[in-house]
């Protein structure tokens, strides 16, 4: 059983930028072994080079998490190179910034479900035998939108909620078998995901308040996973919202609307 994320083989999806990149760089220490995957080969190679410079051994495999054949290839290459997997980080995702009634791409919701939810399922299914052998860790990067509905994020919130519930259920199944499951619920993080979001890309209004850096977000995820915590909710608003929904759901709706400038 590994004692920290940097002691074993870590497979990170969506590693070319944002939280995935920041996590890879934090885990890049002498002796660490990182399998990095994403769709942008050039960006992945840049991250890999930074990790190698820090002393890590890296493998880069370009692929789409929403395509089962690509996922299988990534896992097979990782196991062939490193002879196992100790940590799976399901981080790859696409967002949505558009009122549902204005969404003009009929395949956008399907894409969100395939990448954010099914991609995590595919990777988990194929890596689970290796994780059981190593008594490893699964880290799922969800979103605060998985905990409460948010306007202009309908499809994104639904896909992240499905992802979170899948991993909560899996955690119960794996109890006593040595594999921990940590679900992270970030709020607004400076990752660039908004610029590549489905829909118009123009929400309504602006995002008030503090936006967390990808480095800080990755550090909090790392700490939670290292200690095998079941979850990490990254904002005070997110923590309070879970309890407020029980006694004042209408207030939570209004808070969610204000968070994205919806009026």
Question: Can you give a write-up of this model?
Answer:
The chain contains eight helices and nine strands. It has helices spanning 18-27, 41-53, 68-82, 108-134, 154-173, 214-226, 236-247, 249-259, and strands at residues 9-13, 33-38, 57-62, 87-90, 137-141, 180-185, 189-190, 212-213, 231-233. Helices cover 46% and strands 15% of the residues. The chain is an alpha/beta fold. The N and C termini lie far apart (50 Å). The longest helix has 27 residues, at 108-134. The protein has a seven-stranded parallel β-sheet with strand order 3-2-1-4-5-6-9, with helices on both faces. Strands 7-8 form a two-stranded parallel sheet.
Summarize this structure as a short list of keywords or feature phrases.
46% helix, two-stranded parallel ribbon, Rossmann fold, 8 helices, single chain, alpha/beta
